[in-house]
Write a structure and sequence with these properties.
The protein is of the alpha/beta class. The protein has 2 domains: 8-317, Rossmann fold, CATH 3.40.50; 332-493, Alpha-D-Glucose-1,6-Bisphosphate, Chain A, domain 4. Helix content is 38%, strand content 20%. It contains 15 helices and 19 strands. The chain has helices at residues 19-28, 64-71, 84-87, 91-109, 129-141, 162-173, 192-201, 223-233, 249-259, 264-273, 284-288, 296-308, 346-353, 366-378, 452-493, and strands at residues 8-12, 32-37, 54-58, 76-79, 113-119, 148-153, 156-157, 176-179, 186-187, 190-191, 212-215, 221-222, 240-243, 334-342, 399-400, 403-409, 413-418, 424-434, 440-450. Strands 3-2-1-4-5-6-11 form a 7-stranded parallel sheet, sandwiched between helices. A 6-stranded antiparallel sheet has the order 14-19-18-17-16-15. A two-stranded parallel sheet has the order 7-10. Strand 17 (413-418) and strand 18 form a beta hairpin. Helix 4 (91-109) packs parallel to helix 5 (129-141) and helix 8 (223-233) crosses helix 12 (296-308). It starts with 7 loop residues before the first strand and ends with a helix. The model has no long low-confidence stretch (mean pLDDT 84).
Length: 494
């Protein structure tokens, strides 16, 4: 029942952090890959998505018929789905429901095997809701009798992983940390490359069929020790870490939310899970699938190199549902529309637009954007801490500070939907129209659909600032586009 390379494999969660790295590795091994995703546009700009052995199926995992059709003809299915980003406090119930539906559809579609990446942690009454939910998903996937291979991992360290980002932000921003007692909890992290090695390796290892394995790196460390290693690799002084017994998981989650890009709703279950020791209890899989297991220092060093080289393959921010645009044709919609003729080609203007956010800023009144980011952070929003995955390139579904890319037509259009806390829906839309010669027309439009009286008051309160923010942004894009075009022309002559 081991899958030969000629067979088709399905990945539920191909747009997520692990799924987006697993798919190209399976293609390298010669497998055909069918990606089951809610938002196919998220994969449009991935290099591997255009491979002839890749199928991308728009699939709602809650739709049993569509799910069964998407799984039809697949020998093995990877289940890499987590509802924490989308279902909030209901994530455990949502995960259980989706896993049951997936197992039923897989059985009806003739799938021979399911492979699931779960979480480490001793079972018992003290197990956190997050880790207990991972166990429930395991049981749900096994409920129809299909052989299920479960790999249980603790902290996964790699560029763009949630664990890596939490560590990096905490260590970079807090030379002194007053922390909960969980900083003493033992943990056995694993490098993302080793996780992918096990996920692909089990396909050719008969001993892993219908079995559960703990996977981890070669070291067991406390979170305090891992933080100090991160500080050393960042070239920072040793951090002062002061554990206190009074910080509850809820208070810890607010602390994580304020310092890292994670929202409170995601930080809370993760903070609760940090109190549980997550250490491998057995090591069978390392004997059957030997590989070079990276230490925590090696994994952190490799991840930091990826970040510095702007080559982060996937990010935890890519996961989760992507809401559709609001209906801008109905109800009250406020618009701030501007346009400008730019003496630069369309490709240069589009590149300049795609540089917004992150370390580049917003071309004008950056201090106002920072103030708005802090205000958003204080009311539970993402603020400006998420930054961006790459300083130059953007893709559908990616986060840019407290915006997300919801539409993209290269060299023509980029649309950003606001994910900040707002009394309404907001969209920032850029359109580029090529004209004769090396010039084009740049249209910029901010739309806001208010929610109730407070939404109306909000628009009228910020409207006076739009002339500074949006007019300055338009002019800033123009300057950057002219610079990019000149650099391109100079490079061509050289």
């Amino acid at each position: 029942m081991i899958a030969p390379p000629s067979l088709r494999l399905a990945i539920a969660g191909a747009t997520g952090y692990i799924g987006g790295r697993l798919a190209p590795r399976l293609l390298e091994l010669g497998f055909a890959v069918r990606c089951l995703v809610r938002s196919p546009g998220k994969l449009r700009d991935r290099e591997w998505a255009s491979h002839p052995r890749v199928e991308i199926c728009a699939t709602n995992l809650a739709d049993s018929q569509a799910l069964r059709e998407s799984l039809s003809g697949c020998h093995t299915a990877y289940y890499l789905v987590h509802s924490m980003n989308s279902a909030g406090a209901r994530y455990a119930e949502e995960d259980r429901t989706l896993a049951v539906a997936f197992a039923r559809a897989a059985r009806e579609a003739g799938v021979k095997r399911i492979i699931y990446l779960g979480g480490l942690g001793e079972t018992g009454p003290d197990l956190s809701q997050h880790l207990a939910s991972r166990r429930e998903v395991e049981q749900a996937l096994r409920s129809t009798g299909i052989p299920v291979t479960v790999l249980r991992a603790a902290m996964i360290i790699g560029s763009g992983s949630a664990s890596f980002e939490i560590l990096r932000y905490l260590v970079e921003r807090l030379p002194v940390m007053v922390t909960p007692k969980w900083v003493r909890t033992p943990c056995q992290p694993i490098a993302v490359r080793n996780v992918i090695g096990y996920l692909t390796g089990v396909l050719s290892c008969p001993e892993t069929l219908d079995a559960t394995f703990d996977i981890g790196g070669p070291e067991v460390l406390s979170y305090r020790e891992i933080m100090q290693i991160m500080a050393e690799e960042l070239g920072l002084r040793r951090r002062w870490i002061l554990p206190v017994p009074v910080l509850t998981p809820r208070l810890s989650s607010y602390w994580i939310h304020l310092v890292t890009p994670l929202s409170h709703s995601i930080a809370k279950p993760l903070a609760e899970g940090l109190r549980n020791p997550v250490v491998c209890r057995e090591n069978r899989i390392a004997e059957w699938l030997p590989q070079d297991l990276w230490t925590v220092r090696e994994a952190i060093r490799a991840a930091l190199r990826k970040v510095a080289a702007h080559s982060v393959e996937t990010s935890w921010l890519m996961a989760g549902p992507l809401p559709g645009d609001p209906d801008w044709s109905g109800g009250t919609v406020f618009r701030d529309a501007r346009e400008l003729a730019v003496e630069a080609p369309d490709w240069a203007v589009f590149r300049a637009i795609c540089r917004v956010g992150g370390g580049h800023g917003w071309y004008a009144a950056d201090w106002l954007w920072r103030v708005r980011g802090w205000m958003d952070l204080l009311v539970g929003g993402p603020g400006l801490r998420r930054g961006r995955r790459d300083p130059e390139q953007v893709a559908y579904g990616e986060a840019l500070d407290f915006w997300r890319v919801v539409a993209m037509d290269r060299n023509r259009r980029l649309s950003l939907r606001a994910e900040m806390k707002l009394p309404g829906e907001a969209l920032l839309d850029f359109q580029v129209e090529a004209q004769s010669g090396d010039r084009c027309l740049l249209r910029q439009q901010a739309l806001f659909q208010p929610r109730g009286l407070f939404g109306l008051l909000y628009w009228y309160a910020v409207a006076p600032l739009h002339h500074v923010v949006f007019r300055g942004m338009l002019r800033g894009i123009e300057r950057e586009a002219i610079r990019i075009a000149a650099a391109g022309a100079e490079g061509a002559r050289a």
